[in-house]
Write a structure and sequence with these properties.
Four copies of one chain form a homotetramer. Chain A is α+β, with helices and mostly antiparallel strands and about 300 residues long. Helices cover about 45% and strands about 15% of the residues of chain A. The longest helix of chain A has 26 residues. Chains in contact: A-B, A-C, A-D, B-C, B-D, C-D. β1 of chain A pairs antiparallel with β1 of chain B, so a sheet runs across the interface.
Chain lengths: ~300, ~300, ~300, ~300
């Protein structure tokens, strides 16, 4: 899948995002063997504004007013103008990350087919500081980093199992690393079956295309601290892509989604009482312990 | 909604479709007051090929092989690579056409809001040769053109009702054609209510964005002879856009969709008997009359 | 489109919602000629819980725990379990309402075809207290009710134009109210063209089917006070349907969506300062005037 | 995830499919450890007809006419009425099958989370007659069954690697088969990381819900002879579910989709010449070798 990229730009009458042009076609490393590469995009902040103006007939073309309109759209969940820009990326990622990623259905995907071609000997091994214990208070999270000794065992197991699985994968295919038959008297198992011997940390790759609105939905969930670290590593790169591509939309997304909060009716009532000077306790709040803890943490945390 | 388009091209590292660049931002007239204008696009034939190669690892970069791969994808309904290109158009169209168009749900839309702004006095009046009688054998089609006298009555009715509805629309709004109040002592009805007095031939406009796969689905249904003439007028322009944008995909679309046929199991059995030299009749075919007629017409029609 | 409904229940091994069974097939009147009728449904609160348990393996089957889990899902935007229930309704509604409704793309729709059949002489005329002036501070809203004199003019215009448009519709079709030709010497215009003479307040009808998650999205937007009154009239009925169908989900939806609020990063900072005892003003808040007014109204309003 | 199913039916006023009621909640075994179980459904053949009648106002309520209407809809790709019925199934399947399955995006899914819970020691081992060589003429298919000796090696590798991977999975988690810690002095790796050591033949499970239209799209692709054997095993069960649920739709689906063919423009021209008595050869056909072979096979095969 080597590809040739012309280093000479072409001319276009389309909207151009200067920040995105600088990122285009450059692979950004993620985890140990993964990458993200922006392949193509359509539209910029102005495309969002332009589409909104069809609906609302608003304003002028000055940036300060574009910023205001984009904030307004984000704040009021007027999402359709954000569907008017599009991004296409090439991603190399471990299969277990791909399984989380694909749950976002509002995107187009073309994945490398291991029925069709042989996968490379590339698998994910967590770095030392990602090897963490099971969290006890969050059933789907990690807690503290494992001790040196335990971490070494983990790495040994992951690495040796992945290597052995791949050796056997080639055995099953009756193929050596260069694609030549190992034993001319054997047929070799079909690729679509042999691959089932590989583990979930093997790398796959795909083209993934989505619109700006769904891109932000993806980021809201996957750049979140509750997301698994490995997919967050991809989302963090993509947050930077968002900022370079559509700076006004990125700022509004931070202000109204990522750094904003959702208060329930009961939590809002508590906030009103607090502002009125009342000393509200968990017991008098009407919230569950978990909701109360969340509210306290939201109200106390400094930006 | 006047817009300024720079006539100077910008530089980009993205894929560029030379045919599409020539169409960009130019309004193409449709019906009496409508238009289609391509606002933006992403990708070209090579983008389809490139995405397919991620999956299948196929071939080289020569055009003849790109053509073969695109034909293969189309023939086998491998639709995801065609989702990798995108188009955005600005359309002005009568509301009854918009109502048919919007049934294609896999697209993004921003429509001019008549809650927010006042609609213009622009309505669709069919041209002389579009004024046809109800078909008797096709419950949702047209038959022969109406006589001169009857057509004149039709035009008179459509025109005078549309004009009167608009006069009353302004009356309801208490606004003259220049946006000034007619009678300073009146409040004027809200825009969202006043508009309900307009008829379905009034023009609206929207931005519409979809991917190449769904774009072809739209064309397959709306460039078809069973589609209502007025929406076909838009689809015909868009067929030309398709050809300029992605010539290889357009050719494959013609070959395998538009000019191809779907045969049922029973129709296929009939074809086999015919090729074997048997004289098959409607009675011996096992088909309903309608299916038989369709099959005969498919087999007899000359390209 | 008359339909016969058996009044005798059948036996099923599926989940049954007692509240929904009582609503089934009963038309609820909306506006002057519209209705909503629940045709079918799939699942109940327990179906949401059951799907969530596949993912999270949570809890037991007691209602108190079901309530907690449903609240948890709603609060954390874990939306997929809510996609596991489904509703199908039959709606009769004015075309301008249908145009707003159809913007929700994640639903299935079968609409009555005016290409195929003749529409009835049924159009929407707002009731006296819905005839309101254009709002001046909200570009897409209504303000105070019109005066008696102005309202009478509005009603006269709407009614007489709708009647005339329908008379002419029949003229164009060359059909009287009973479906007989008016003038045997004329062909009559095709139905697909004649209908364009009707105004946007004419009634259409459709079957509409969506899942519980998208149903709530619809309600969040359309039962909102910023929605146009006429579509809100439908949403209000559907809010009641939601409550009867899935009472636990309905309560969580109220608590975490309808009656909750979204605070931006800046608004949250203001709230923190207020709780700390600081007297924050619009000027010192960092919010725009509109955002400040919204925040004040959220913090002051009593439940 | 044990579940209790009441064996006593409840009463409903909804449409009931007698065939589907008989299947409900019964697990059908697939592969070595998988199953499919229908959890819920909405609608039947009559629901399709009923929705179509809203659009077309067609016909009466007799079965012969329902059959005709369903055939008509299928033949003309009028797909929306088929969206009016819905199915929800519980599936246990190997992860590599799940990865193919999930590519169908128009469905709702809740999958068992291995971040949240520990997976069971259950993995797929192909049966003797599924262990086949790589096809040489179809890059993503299987050819003849492997020899006894080679097959034995394959089974040994797959089984011992899967067992070892699972042993190590428990080691990483520091958990024995009963959920107790192996070594009290160790923390154990978090579940979300430990699972990456499992191979693609491990079983997962999910709830999957889709409408009848998309269900048939799934079957068209996955019950096809080009689909991988393991997903076809699931699709075959679901073909039977389709037949029991909506027998008229199933028959039309066979007639117009599964057992019908799509002819390209060029292939159609060849068929016309053949019927005209001409002896067409590959060289004179205008088709590629592959297209010619496909056409010959379609025209020669006996039903």
């Amino acid at each position: 899948m080597s590809e040739h990229f012309d280093d000479k730009p072409l001319q276009t009458f389309r909207a151009v995002s200067p920040g995105m042009e600088r990122l285009l076609n450059k692979p950004f490393k993620v985890l140990d063997h993964g990458f993200i590469r922006v392949v193509d995009y359509m539209g910029d902040d102005a495309a969002v504004v332009q589409a909104a103006r069809v609906s609302y007939g608003r304003g002028t073309k000055q940036t300060s007013q574009d910023r205001g309109l984009i904030n307004y759209l984000m704040r009021h969940f007027h999402t359709t103008p954000f569907e008017m820009a599009e991004i296409k990326i090439h991603v190399k990622l471990p299969i277990f990350v791909a399984r989380q990623w694909i749950r976002h259905r509002t995107a187009s995907v073309n994945e490398y087919s291991a029925r069709y071609s042989v996968l490379d000997r590339e698998f994910y091994i967590p770095s030392r500081d990602a090897i963490a214990a099971q969290s006890t208070n969050n059933r789907q999270g990690r807690a503290e980093i494992l001790s040196e000794a335990e971490a070494r065992t983990v790495l040994d197991i992951l690495r040796s199992d992945a290597e052995r699985n791949y050796d056997h994968y080639l055995d099953l295919l009756n193929t050596d690393e260069h694609g030549s038959p190992i034993d001319a008297s054997r047929s070799g198992l079909s690729r679509e079956l042999a691959r089932i011997n590989l583990s979930l940390n093997y790398y796959t790759q795909w083209y993934w295309k989505t619109n700006l609105h769904n891109f932000m939905n993806f980021l809201r969930l996957r750049a979140d601290k509750h997301a698994q670290y490995e997919i967050r590593a991809y989302a963090d790169i993509l947050m930077n892509v968002l900022e370079q591509w559509v700076p006004l939309t990125h700022a509004a997304f931070r202000e109204h989604r990522l750094d904003g909060v959702q208060l329930s009716a009961t939590a809002l009532a508590v906030v009103r009482r607090m502002i009125g000077g009342e000393k509200v306790t968990e017991a008098s709040s009407g919230l569950t312990k978990r909701e109360w803890d969340d509210l306290v943490s939201v109200l106390e945390s400094k930006p």
